[in-house]
From TrEMBL:
Keyword Membrane: yes
Organism of provenance: Actinacidiphila yanglinensis
Transmembrane listed as a keyword: yes
Signal peptide from the UniProt entry: none
GO-annotated biological processes: signal peptide processing
A GO molecular-function annotation: serine-type endopeptidase activity
Active site, per annotation: S76, K117
Residue ranges crossing the lipid bilayer per the database entry: 44-67, 237-258
Protein name: Signal peptidase I
Family: Belongs to the peptidase S26 family.
């Protein structure tokens, strides 16, 4: 149906119409017909908000399924993570971690609280310290460890042990204070921790704000047979989805007031 045009005073016509079309006729007889773009904009802003909610809530829900927060209990992993730091650990089983990974585990022989240590040996590895330059030895090969609190000395404690199958040899980055596998060589597991005790693999620091960020993957063990540390998990993709969701929600919600303001100024 065509829009209806009514006569106004002084021979001019005013705009009337239906749906998304309107017409305006002036006293000179010219007529302009245009679509109402506001309706399309409203629909697009609604889609943006809905999509933003899906990304934002979906990102958080996925993160809750894949990751779990833990508090670092001691200074044994400094400077990589510090006591009191809140870290995010990807929920993985112990047989999915590799040399160089930082893991959260709970072993009743080590205490009642979850511990955070670095994997330097897996089942079947021979781990020893130290070579002539103070470096850790894994299967006869020296390992440079740039993450250590004291890069010049891999351990003040000399040791040479073979990791049992289905177990992990775990040490702290702050070797001078860490109570770890090196000091438990006389127990039934020769200082190693069963893979079943692993709760997750640390990927990021979530608190305090000054230390928020991902925990970088080390390449220290890459040259060994069997490879080194695990690849990063999906955390960055989850954060990207959450941020994109926030942007879409704010952008979509801001459309209506901004559009109305522009129209008022134009009128």
């Amino acid at each position: 149906m065509l829009p209806r045009v009514q006569r106004a005073d002084h021979g001019a016509y005013r705009r009337v119409g239906f749906g998304s079309m309107s017409a305006t006729r002036t006293s000179t007889g010219s007529e302009t017909i245009r679509g109402d773009r506001g309706g399309t904009g409203q629909r697009l802003s609604g889609i943006a908000v809905a999509l933003g909610c899906v990304l934002f809530l979906g990102g958080f829900a996925w993160a809750a399924v894949v990751y779990r927060p833990y508090t670092v209990p001691t200074s044994s992993m400094e400077p990589t993570v510090r006591p009191g730091d809140k870290v995010l650990a990807q929920k993985v089983s112990g047989d999915q971690v590799h040399r160089g990974d930082i893991v959260v585990f709970k072993d009743k022989q080590w205490g009642d609280l979850p511990e955070v240590k670095r994997v330097v040996g897996v089942g079947g590895d021979t781990v020893a310290c130290c070579d002539a330059h103070g470096r850790l030895m894994v299967n006869g090969k020296a390992v440079d460890e740039p993450y250590l609190a004291d890069p010049g000395q891999a351990s003040g404690t000399k040791f040479d042990t073979k990791v049992p199958a289905g177990a992990l040899f775990l040490v702290g980055d702050n070797r001078a204070v860490s109570q770890d596998s090196r000091l438990r060589l006389d127990d039934s597991q020769q200082g190693a921790v069963p893979v079943s005790d692993v709760r997750g693999r640390v990927e990021a620091t979530a608190w305090p704000l000054s230390r928020v960020g991902t925990v970088g993957r080390t390449s220290a063990f890459d040259a060994l047979t069997g490879g080194g540390a695990s690849a990063q998990g999906p955390l960055r993709w989850l954060l990207a989805a959450i941020v994109a969701g926030v942007v879409l929600i704010l952008g979509g919600a801001a459309y209506t007031p901004l559009s109305n303001r522009v129209r008022r100024r134009a009128g």
